[in-house]
Amino acid sequence: MTQVNINVHYVTRVEGHGNLVLNAKDGKIEKLMWEVPESPRLFEAMLVGRHFDDVHHIASRICGICSIAHTTASIQATEAAFGVKLSEQTILLRKLLYHAEMLESHVLHTIMLAAPDFLGVESVIPLASTHKDVVVLALRMKKLAYKLAEALAERKTHPLSCVVGGFAKLPDPAKLSALKKELLDAYKDMDVVVGLFKTLKIPDFVRDTEYIALQDAKEYAFINGMIASSDAPAVKIDDYLKVTNEFVVPQSTAKYTRNKRDAYQVGALARFNLNSKLLSPKAKKAAKELGLTAPNHNPYMITVAQVVELWHVLEDSVNIIDRLLEKGIKDEPLNVKPKAGRGVGAVEAPRGILFHDYTYDANGIVTKANCIIPTNQNHNNIQKDLEFIVPKILNKSDAEITLLMEMLVRAYDPCISCSTHALQVEIKR
Amino acid sequence: MKPKVAFFDFTSCEGCQLDVLNLTGEELLDLLNAVEIVNFREAISRRDDDYDIAFIEGSVTREAEIPRLQKIRAQAKILVALGACACIGGVNALKNNLKMDEALKMVYGNDAKQFDTIPARPINAVVPVDFYIRGCPVQTGEVVKVIKALLLGRKPEIPNYPVCTECKMAGNICVYELGKTCLGPVTRAGCSAICVSGGRHCWGCRGLVDEPNINSQKDILEKYGLSAERIIDKFKIYNTYTEVQK
Amino acid sequence: MNTNSILVVDDEAIVRESIRDWLKESGYDVATAESAEEALQMTAHKEFGVLVLDVRLPGKSGLTALKEIKAQYPAVKSIIVTAYPSEETTAEANRLGALECMIKPVAPEELEKLVREAIESLEKEPAVKPPAVKAPAFKKSAVISKRSFKTLVENLLKTTEVVGVKSKKGKYVFDHVTSFDDLRMDYDVTVNPPTQYLFPARETILKYDLTDFKKSAPVVDKSPRAIIGVHPYDIRAIELLDEAFITLNPDPNYIARRQNSLIIGVDCLHPSPKAFSPSMGTNVAETGFDLLLTDIGDTYMITVGSQKGADLLKKNVQVIEPTTDDIARQKMARDEALTRYRLSLNVARERLPKMLDDAYDDPYWQQRASTCLSCGSCVMVCPTCFCFDVQDDVALNLKDGERNRLWDGCMLVDFAKVAGGENFRHDKTSRFHHRIYRKGKYILERYGKTGCVGCGRCGIACLAEIASPLEAFNDIAEIAMNKQLEKTAESVRPEEELYAPLQAELVRVENLAAKEKVFEIKLAGGRELGQKPGQFVELSLYGMGEAPFGVATSPTRRGTFEIAIRNVGSLTNVSHTLKAGDTVGIRGPFGNGFPLKQFEGKDLLLIAGGTGIFPMRSLIQYVQDNRHLYGKVIVLYGARGPAERLFTKDLEAWQNDKSIEFHETVDRGDANWKGNVGVITTLIPKVQIDPKKTVAVVVGPPIMYRFVIVELKKRDIADENIIMSLERRMKCGVGKCGHCQMNGLYVCQDGPVFSLAQLRTVKEAI
After folding, report:
1. Minimal C-alpha gap between B235 and chain A (Å)
2. Across the strands, what pairs with C77?
3. Which of A379, C112, C649, C733 has its Cβ near the most Cβ atoms within 10 Å?
4. How confident is the model at residue C655 (pLDDT cuts 50, 70, 90)?
5. In CATH, what number does B4-152 get?
6. Which chains, if any, share at least 3 CB pairs under 8 A with chain C?
């Protein structure tokens, strides 16, 4: 009688706390669970009663890694509720700021959190000796991302200058010019990264999955577009609830979602599968080199899709800076008048589509709030992926099974503490 | 013998830990030369329970977190609270303003009992803390400064004067003159007044100075026509726990 | 040289011409000039014997002109005339050897007399050959077009770092300038001072290697810059920094920046509503800059302050010779600017140091500072603040380190804290107090330059609106004035009644001892005397006269008061014949009384010898009636002998009062005496006291003080905690008749209660 009992308490190298539990006897699985025991943080409840000037400031604190995503989604939800029109300059600056976070998050995840597994080490620290160049360039790219964010919003984690309607402080063109040069310098770093990933052996598991992401007609969408699904026609952002369909499960303080099937996936692979035609030239080239073609149903390839997106982010950032410098950066007075109403903001956080939904009263105070986090939407899919993969690897050693299960979770680049922010809360006052 | 350092996170957004990693290659190598990181769940898989210095991010919001924290305190020679949530309760404590049972019941219905949640509190409400690195998020520079101080065996120099001092040193225009409100006059400096430099105002994320002149602050708000409710509202974003303590 | 020749320099035609006429009538050879520049042009060609110079002139001042003329003609005599006298002007005039500094309007005979004296002394002196002095290398005034100024700035932008005033969110700041169009020359005041470029907020002063001490080295920044648009008050602030950083212990970092900074100033023609530089004498600057611009319409009138400035002009622009019209327009612009200031000092600024001295302990400071946030804004925006902290910083490699200095401020909470935890200015009142005193007094006394230049920045920056030294100075001036008024109003009755006693009735007369009686007195009309323990009254017996007596009861015992009289002289003889029901006159109470506030919370050691018990009794009663205010109370009493003991009923009561520790002694005992024998000093070693918490009060015969003080000092009690009541011949009680003088003090006004600390410099006291 063979028994497999694996209990990973708090998976490492992911953001937030999650547990993996596997009990199998004689090749039969008795319990296989991805548990999310994270503390409920009750953000939507905390947003109720807040003035719109503070809302995005608080919402940013849902997550430290994707704070720019939360800030942007929050601001866009408020702008949708008030009917605020944005200037081209603001939109460009926001996209650029967004790229900064995407750059940092993807570099962190692909090289520092996920790659160690493929290279057989337990963290990036040993790599500082064996793959010093890669570690140094990863840190350099992270620093570049920070510098870019700082030039636009004074700080990357919990950005400061982006406010409802625009920016409270405009960047110095000289700084942007210098950063463009650094972005171009990073091209050769990207070559090294792609080179590295070409050598890594990605576990091969294919499970047909529904993919959901933002989609825009003209560009690879991160902060605009409609909700696209691989299984269904695109839906307006305002109708997101029709797509997410949240429900509670006992092993998780985060709710799960489903759409056309019993689970769906969001994130870099979803974006790639739906929008790969709109990637930048070098991104497309890298995808080919890395053997990634749409549609790809291997969850372990999410990390590879992120590498491809890194190329797009670099090239698009350079384009945006060119456009900004060409137009010249002008002072634009902020004039936002609150209005009663409801608005939804949707963005693609590094790990998937994110929704913020606010209802305001006439004084600009939130009366109701709802946030749906990408990792929420992935929890169910992770569970289904595990249920698919584990039976196929039960014959391996405990250590190998554990590693593959952890790698699966890591591949999703989950942001678990975001996902347990809690749900629709109606506080009757 | 290099000191062994561990990073732990409780209820938090993990942004502070992330910013700790915002080092250049050279700095990271210098750091690894100076200390041994034996536990840092977000970044490494190794998990040693033998450490000298523990950095704690996040506040305590669940019963189960208390024994976990006490165990860390028992092990660590030095305990450093990292970030506003750990130092003063931070944004997590905003939920303390809500009636907990009602909120939970509304959210989770009958499943409410499974969720262990208590009013959020800073680390020093549960165990003694040796040093504080404040702010939301912390500034990498200040983290490095504290680590350097610990390595040199000295107390880090953290200001006890309000943000206004650094705001003026940075050449900022006072936001009160621009018709906005700001918690700078009672908030502890050390952040170089970054939020004002970024076009906004101070929200007080670093907590109060040792002897804030709250009465004077209230008078000033009235003088500038800013309502006290708006300020208390803003103050509560990071300082709910402090307010409750008063 | 024709010693008879006089040069009169004044820009006001009427003054100039009238002086000329007076002197011409007296037979002198008189020439005139209407500006310093003109005077210099004239003296370049001709030697004068006497100069009569106005101080305030358009362009250079009369004092500067004198300085330069003396360089060429050291023997020339001078008389300074000014409408705006100040300590600084007088001091400067004296330094330059002027015979006199006269205040306008000038009395013609006086002036003539001085001129005569000057010429006489000249004729007596041996002829002095003027030294071969070079004429100044550069011309002091110039005019340039505004377009030329633009060229000048643009050329500077190509060759050096340029900082100047820019607009930011509707205010003005000094900042790095990249284009002439950003530059503002017409601003009112900047948020941050230009002194930050000479003394930056953060500066590395040393670099070192933790592993090798020899590798440490000072760090000095020699990079050049041009600072454009510095207002005169800021130039004056820079001159203060020069004094502080260069004269004593020259500071290499400051000096490097100073030497490599080009300072282009501009007159402030549109002052900020909070500015008050004319009151501080800092709205004009005559030195301390390379160039100073005055906007006179479509051109700038330039005052050249240095060779560097002259070279800069020569290299970059076409300079126009100024006409008298330009000079007049400059004067007009400056005069008009003067009318735009809304705030001013209500007291002559020379009086500030003394006024602040007098107000040192005024309760005003606590009330004013109560809303202070200790936020540091005032010190950070101040151009004359230059306190700093020094901090070490080491790189993560634990090898490379630097020592940095950063701005600090006396208004910040921990500024005066030491390692042990003691904070010498732990409360905001003391910090606020220090800053105002530094600005109004300490800096002037230490460096000879004004500590506050009246820029108004702190008044703008302070959210609690308490920072402006001007407001504090004016408040103190008002308090001082009110005190003066109060003092005269203090007398209960109108002025004519100063020497007229109040009617009073003797309610009770009782024997205390062989020569002493106690008199209980009630003022007519049921009035309360309102005395403070330690004060005295003048007992008036019409036909006999008046004598002073200490009041022996506390004001807390209302209705009547007691005095005790020893029968030693004619009036006291007569007083001893009085009985209950008799009428007497009372004037007073006089004197300062015991410093009750100082006693609060302290342990008291009250030492009374002989009749010293009379005033001490008022204090003991007061302490008993307010017992909770004081700590331990010890009373020591000494009498010559048992028969000479006074107020025996009280002595017994004090012995039995559990809240007081009471000891008494007699110099010589008798058969029945069972108590201590010995002089009063023998009681002192017997008592337990904590010198840090104890205030000792001593009243007794003159000889007693010397010996008691020795004993008290042995117990480590500080001078300011040893309080004595002294006796002198008090007659009028109101500080006029002069009999009670003790060195420079009047005992009836400044005493009779003094602390030993006060008396250390009063040689006649003990």
Report:
1. 11
2. C50
3. A379
4. very high
5. 3.40.50.700
6. B
